[in-house]
Amino acid sequence: AQTVTQSQPEMSVQEAETVTLSCTYDTSENNYYLFWYKQPPSRQMILVIRQEAYKQQNATENRFSVNFQKAAKSFSLKISDSQLGDTAMYFCAFMTFNSGTYKYIFGTGTRLKVLA
Amino acid sequence: DTEVTQTPKHLVMGMTNKKSLKCEQHMGHRAMYWYKQKAKKPPELMFVYSYEKLSINESVPSRFSPECPNSSLLNLHLHALQPEDSALYLCASSQELAGRETQYFGPGTRLLVL
C-alpha cells in the first residue's frame, strides 16, 4: 500500500528566508505523480507544484521548487524568499492510476508559519 | 473562471435528518471529487466521478450517497449520519481523471452532526 509521510508537523521561517519541507513516500508503482498543496487558514486548498515520476528534472514554480529523489522516494518542497502569505498548512500528496486502480493519498501536513 | 463553489458553507444536522451538499464548476471539467477532511487531518478521498459516472468509491458507508446530475454539478446526499461524520467536506474538479491534471478545490462545507 502507498503511504505518504511528512515528518515535520510544524515549522516556522523568517520572512524573506528559505525553508524546506520534507516528504517521503512508499510505493511499488513506477508511474505516479507527486504534489504539494497549500491550505491557508479557512481558505481553499490550492496546488503549489506537481512532479511527474518519469521526469528527472525537478519542478519549479516561481519561488517554489522541489527536490525529487525517486530512488530515495523523497519529495521535498523548497520555498525561497518566504512571504507572510505563505503561512498555511502544506500537504504532500501521491497519485497513481494504473489498471483501473486510482489512489490519491495526502500526507499528514506541515503547518508553516512565516514570521515578520 | 477557475472556481469551484460549494453550498452550504456550514451545515448542522441531526442524526435522523436528510440533507444534501452541492458542488458546482463551470470550467468544463469532466472529473469531480468528494473528500472528507477531519480537523487537523489531511483530506481523504471518498468518491470520484468521471464523465458523470461514478468511477471510484473508497468504501464509503452507504449513508453517504453521491450524485452527478450533469457535468457541472456534484451532490452528496446525507442520511442517518453519525457524530463522527462531522468534518469539512471538500469538492474538487479536474479536466480529466488523470495525474497530470490539476485539481481545483472548493472552499468546503463544514458539517456538524449532533
Key structural traits:
heterodimer; A: 116 residues; mainly beta; B: 114 residues; 7-stranded mixed β-sheet; 0% helix; globular
Sheet/helix structural class of chain A: mainly beta
Q: Helical region count of chain B? A: 0
* Beta-strand content bin of chain B: over 45%
**Termini separation of chain A (Å)?**
41 Å
The H/E string of chain B reads EEEEEEEEEEE
Low-confidence stretches of chain B: none
Enumerate how many helices of chain A there are, as a single number. 0
Number of DSSP strand runs of chain B: 11
Structural class of chain B: mainly beta
What does the main sheet of chain A amount to? 6 strands, mixed
- Average predicted confidence as pLDDT of chain B: 93
Q: What is the approximate shape of chain A? A: globular
- Report helical residue fraction of chain A: under 10%
> What's the gyration radius of chain B in Å?
13 Å
Describe this structure in words.
The complex is a heterodimer of chains A (116) and B (114). Chain A is mostly beta strands and 116 residues long. Chain A is built from no helices and twelve strands. In chain A, a hairpin with a 2-residue loop joins strand 10 (88-98) and strand 11. The relative contact order of chain A is 0.34. The model of chain A has no long low-confidence stretch (mean pLDDT 93). The mean pLDDT of chain B is 93.
